[in-house]
Amino acid sequence: MAAVLREKQLLFLGFFISFITAVLSARHHQQRKLYKPPTLKNLNDNFPRQTFDQAFSPYFGGSNLQVRDKGASVDISLNKYTGSGFISQNRYHYGFFSASIKFPAGDYSAGVVLAFYLSNQDVYPRSHDEIDFEFLGHAKRKPWNLQTNVYGNGSVKYHGREEKIRLWFDPTKQFHTYTIIWNSNHIVFLVDNIPIREVTYTKMISPAYPSKPMTLYSTIWDGSPWATDGGKYKVDYKLSPFVASFEKLQVEGCIWNNQTKSSLTPSPSPTMSPAQSPYPSPTPSSAPLFSCTKSGGNGKMDSVEGEDVIRLSEEQRKAMAEIRKEYLTYSYCKDKNRFPVLPPECNSQ
Q: Active-site residue among 7, 130, 305, 345?
């Protein structure tokens, strides 16, 4: 009897050792496969940084917005009373928009939405343009989700063109850089200088391509009804405040001429159609820009028509393909439950 028991114990021990070995092997394999970003040309080096007072103003949230280091950095936070945010002082028609951001710390940030985006919804509530980075908070042991989205003229027939990327690092531990490039050729979203999504201007997407001047926003707010697992997990205000930090702010582009804008733009009307908009549709990059003034740069690159912003290099395309293969978790172009008839640009992908 004792011999049989000992044999069972040894068998169990063997299974246990095999299990632990398999787990450690899988973990080691995972560590070996951790993504190592390639070294690409750093586009941020081509543009100056702005202090908060040079380029931004408070948007909402009162004391939940704190400007630090003589304007070199700013914190925005969410508590049970309010979120907060800041806004660019100018509207831009195309440009380069970037910030280094450290996300709210902690093991639970469900329901929290941190956003870095361009929009003109205040002028055109029913036919607005928008280009979004949205960072969606997480439940325990789950990562933050990075969601990108593009609207043009209210997105016409299709409301939103979302994609989601799983980040390959912990965004709460240190600052990482998030960049939007927007011009008449394409829209590019970059993380730490790596392109993660490109929306190319084509005839198929032209009705929904952002074409009107927009303002840059940075906000944090409560998105409990939808942000984390479809609203399953809510903001836990016992863990607040949720603080996001911004630094290395860069806003370079074609500043919309306010005088021309006011002379052209009628009072906002909810009945105005995109066809009635005084803002022209995208034009080829070789054509002259209209009614806007390019913001002053450091002379290294044109933020609207420079070679490195109007097209991706082969190295950038390769890096983007690798990221999307490993970390893309959702694309509207693959969602036939949501879109039985996919948006027309999806057919060319």
A: 130
Question: What pTM did the predictor assign?
Answer: 0.82
Tell me the DSSP string of 270-287: TT--GGG-SSPPP--TTS
* Residue 130 designated active-site: yes
What string of pLDDT tens digits covers the 349 residues of the chain?
Answer: 555 556 555 555 555 555 554 444 444 344 436 788 899 999 999 999 999 999 999 999 999 999 999 999 999 999 999 999 999 999 999 999 999 999 999 999 999 999 999 999 999 988 999 999 999 999 887 888 999 999 998 865 667 899 999 999 999 999 999 999 999 999 999 999 999 999 999 999 988 999 999 999 999 999 999 999 889 999 999 999 999 999 999 999 999 976 443 333 333 322 223 333 333 334 333 333 346 777 655 557 789 999 999 999 999 999 999 999 999 999 999 999 988 888 888 887 6
Query: 3-class SS at 174?
Result: coil
Is there a contact between 242 and 252 (Cβ–Cβ < 8 Å)?
no
Helix runs in the chain, H state only: 2-32, 52-55, 258-264, 307-310, 314-327
* C-beta separation of 154 from 161 below 8 A: no
Does domain 49-257+314-347 fall into CATH 2.60.120.200? yes
The active-site residue out of 7, 134, 163, 326 is 134
**What residue ranges do the domains of the chain occupy?**
49-257+314-347
Q: Does residue 345 have an active-site annotation? A: no
